[in-house]
Write a structure and sequence with these properties.
6-stranded antiparallel β-sheet, alpha+beta, 14% helix, Immunoglobulin-like, TIM Barrel, 7-stranded mixed β-sheet
Length: 461
């Protein structure tokens, strides 16, 4: 804080960034907020604000109420311990304060975020002549797309997207970009955690295939991949009745990772290793059990690597996992992309990328097709109640307030015990979950799902 000009600054990735949202007076900075007259200020709609006060104030004093950044107040009424304000249309991408002299309260616009909804197809799509990119980010100020001809490139070709009235940013480019990678950069409103930065690149939350860098940040780039050419050879979901299922819960990697499985070392722990014939492990082991369904622990792309053991990172110290590995997969990063570490070329070599060529997509389809031929249904363990906690996560970089339940102080709520709770009740978060489930049914022919911590998912979803 600079005392002369009272300009608030954050330090993000080594750069001091000015917050232009509000400038506080010296007296407001020093004021003990416990003495504030305000209890809360909430936007009922884009032109109506309700303010709760600790005590009633006179009409003449109420006329001194202002909103910063400047927002015209068209009318104001005092009703007991409340103020009712009619204002010019507010912008949900801005952070407003209701002020009275040297007192202030943040305007809560949370309920307005539920008004944003779009049926447009999100992610990367294409037709005969062009490729279209769409990202839902209703409070973003700007969204940039970077296209990389090589996954190892540090910089890509920048393109600025344009926002529609429903909060979807989009851009269509002529031609096709198959084999290229892309990432987004969002200039988002600063949330109260301070983890949003316009310098962070992240993969599309609708990625169908993603290349991720092997460190705990799990930095990703979306691979543009045509998945329509796979030959299912007449395969379809098996359609068992629930009461007829005999389910074996298992982990893709663990089925063949140990040498006792008999699977060749270069395929051990992989999708392809799982369907090797004539071996002890994998599909032969599943057949020997007499089951008619497998439930795979999570295979959505997840953060394999946790923060280093015993080293402080972002206010946390890993005291629970000396291996610094997330093995079971319950830290999902991308809900449409299969885990790339289990692909034939999967690796956890530091700073290398997994999934750059997209083979994980066909590899997992091969698993489903092979199991179906043996009369074994495929059920996926899916985790929609929270997301990966330590990675450079798309949802946290797009809008923490939209996608997560927050505590009163603005920090992430964690009733899940996993560091964050995903807001499944948000209309576009709900749509994403439904889109994901439908995608795995249609694109991968899976037979069903087991929903992790299902009681944390709202009933409407």
């Amino acid at each position: 804080m600079k005392n002369k000009k009272n300009v608030c600054r954050w330090r993000v990735l080594g750069y001091a960034l000015p917050l232009i949202l509000i400038v506080l007076s010296q007296s407001m900075q020093a004021k003990d907020m416990k003495d504030s007259i305000f209890i809360s200020a909430q936007a009922r709609d884009v032109q109506t604000i309700d303010v709760k006060l600790k005590r009633q104030i006179s009409s003449s004093r109420a006329q001194k109420v202002q909103i910063t950044p400047q927002l015209a107040i068209r009318s104001l009424a005092v009703v007991d311990h409340r103020l009712q304000l009619s204002v010019e249309p507010l912008d949900v991408a801005r952070t407003y304060h209701v002020t009275l002299a040297d007192d202030a309260v943040v305007l809560d616009v949370d309920s307005l975020l539920n008004d944003f909804y779009s049926d447009k197809e999100l992610g990367c799509t294409w037709d005969a002549t062009q490729t279209t990119f769409r990202l839902f980010a209703p409070r973003a100020k700007n969204v940039w797309l970077f296209i990389f001809s090589n996954v190892m490139d540090e910089s890509g070709a920048p393109h600025r997207l344009h926002r529609d009235r429903d909060g979807v940013w989009e851009l269509s480019l002529p031609g096709h970009y198959f084999g290229s990678h892309y990432a987004y950069c969002v200039d988002a409103p600063p949330d109260r955690q301070g983890d949003v930065s316009p310098d962070k690149l992240f993969a599309d939350p609708y990625s169908r295939a993603v290349a991720t860098k092997n460190d705990y940040l799990h930095r990703g780039k979306t691979l543009i991949l045509d998945t329509t050419r796979y030959d299912w050879q007449g395969d379809a979901p098996l359609g068992f009745k629930t009461e007829d299922l005999i389910i074996y819960e298992c982990h893709v990697r663990d089925l063949t990772a140990h040498p006792s499985s008999g699977v060749p070392s270069q395929l051990a722990g992989s999708y392809r290793g799982l369907i090797q014939r004539g071996q002890v492990g994998g599909i032969e082991h599943i057949k020997s059990l007499g089951v008619n369904a497998v439930e795979f622990l999570p295979v959505h792309d997840f953060g394999n690597i946790e923060i280093p053991y015993g080293e402080p990172v972002g206010g946390l110290v890993n005291t629970w996992n000396p291996y610094a590995r997330n093995h079971w997969g319950y830290m999902t990063s991308y809900f449409f992309a299969p885990e790339s570490y289990y692909a034939g070329a999967g690796t956890l070599t530091a700073n290398h990328y997994s999934g750059a060529d997209g083979r994980q997509v066909d590899d997992f389809k091969d698993v489903v097709k092979a199991l179906h031929r043996e009369g074994v249904a495929v059920i996926l363990d899916v985790v929609y109640n929270h997301v990966a906690q330590y990675d450079q996560n798309a949802f946290k970089n797009i809008d923490t307030q939209y996608y997560f339940h927050l505590n009163a102080d603005g920090t992430l709520r964690s009733n899940s015990g996993c560091g964050n709770d995903f807001r499944t009740d948000r209309p576009m978060a709900r749509r994403l979950i439904v889109d994901s489930v439908k995608y795995w049914l249609q694109e991968y022919h899976v037979d069903g799902f087991r929903f992790d911590l299902a009681t944390m998912i709202d009933w409407q979803t």
